[in-house]
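Many groups now describe folds with learned vocabularies. In that spirit, our science desk offers one protein's residues alongside their backbone shape tokens.
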Amino acid sequence: MSSSLRRTLVVAAIAFLAALAGVLLGRALVDGQERAPDQVHKLLHRELGLDERQLAQIEELEARFAARRKALELELKADNARLAEAIEAEHGYGPRVTAEIDRSHRAMGELQKETLSHIFAMRAVLRPEQTQKFDRVVVESLIADAE
């Protein structure tokens, strides 16, 4: 095998692995962000004894967040597509790949910030006796995601 062919195969393998890592990182972050709100949602509707006013406020918050989360998830998908294009164009860890990774990290960070903002907005609707259980579920779900 010629050194030129070997070098091309190595670069192609590295490009493939970098693209795969970007996709997996993006999916892990998005999946991790969905788990905590799902657990919190179940707690809110099943265990906290929300009154009608609280239910209405929570439903409004959930509708707003669902739209924002969907937009950010679409942005992450577009970022992954641009990253794949950059990898294909550069066949390595070049400036375009670096820029696309940075762009996707900004979107991932924004999704995390929006998720936490949503969680704190829901917490603000609760009565003091409800917040302790709410806080425990949020913390436990974040710890479980880290393991």
The mean pLDDT is 78. The chain has one domain: 3-34+56-126.
